[in-house]
Amino acid sequence: MSTQQKVAVITGASRGIGAALVRAYRDRGYRVVATARSIKPSKDDGILVVPGDITERKTAERTISEGIARFGRIDSLVNNAGIFISRPFTQYTQADYADILGVNIAGFFHITQLAVAEMEKHGSGHVVQITTSMDEHADARVPAVLAALTKGGLNAATKSLAIEYAKRGIRVNAVAPGPVKSSMHPPETHRELGDLLPLGQMGEVSDVVDAVLYLESASFVTGEILHVDGGQSAGH
């Protein structure tokens, strides 16, 4: 198989934003390595499916190594896998803490480290994190310290990596959404969540996908935290 076609790795790719990103990158002519804990095989020869738990190093190793074996290169990584649990701080459990840090932090660290090492080999690449605006604009109506701790950490890591790898041809950015109509939020919560935002409505999955695709094509943009949040980060 030709190795000239670009290849994107997408985590949390089985549903919602992740599944939409797989389709969007394919529509742009990319081949895609799609990984998630529970993900069905694809009939598309341009999609390599790698089931596994993103919190484990071995899943990241398999995802990158099988992507290289199948497609010959890694050009982009979208760290989409994530967990969001809203609870009062004192009601978080040890299981909540372990799950959220495992997916949001360990999941990012393992696969990003391996993907960037591959990108360095050909002197170009792009990494995008899906984070949150809540680390910058906390709201007592939606207590989410562990989201702020982990996704806020990814926003900081995005800038740090962008500077570290700027002269090596690798860009690093993040998309920070507000509440989005996805499987994370039951339909009965949509009106209430929309009312929290200055624009008065929740975002769509397509809003996040469009932001990622913009960053993918924006060759002069790195270290950017692109807020797609209905004005949440600007204030109330």
Terminal-residue CA separation: 52 Å
| Number of DSSP strand runs | 7
- Over the alpha carbons, how many angstroms does the gyration radius reach? 17 Å
CATH-derived architecture: 3-Layer(aba) Sandwich
Task: Write out the strand line-up for the largest beta sheet, numbering strands in chain order.
Answer: 3-2-1-4-5-6-7
Fraction of residues in helix: 40-55%
Structural class: alpha/beta
* Uncertain regions spanning at least 5 consecutive residues: none
Tell me the number of helical segments per DSSP (H or I, 4 or more residues long): 6
CATH topology: Rossmann fold
CATH superfamily: NAD(P)-binding Rossmann-like Domain
Average residue-wise pLDDT: 94
The major pleated sheet works out as: 7 strands, parallel
What is the ordering of alpha helices and beta strands?
Answer: EHEEHEHEHEHHE
Which strand-content bin applies to the residues? 15-25%
Label the overall shape: globular
The domain count comes to 1
Keywords: Oxidoreductase
Organism: Labrys miyagiensis
Protein name: Gluconate 5-dehydrogenase
Family: Belongs to the short-chain dehydrogenases/reductases (SDR) family.
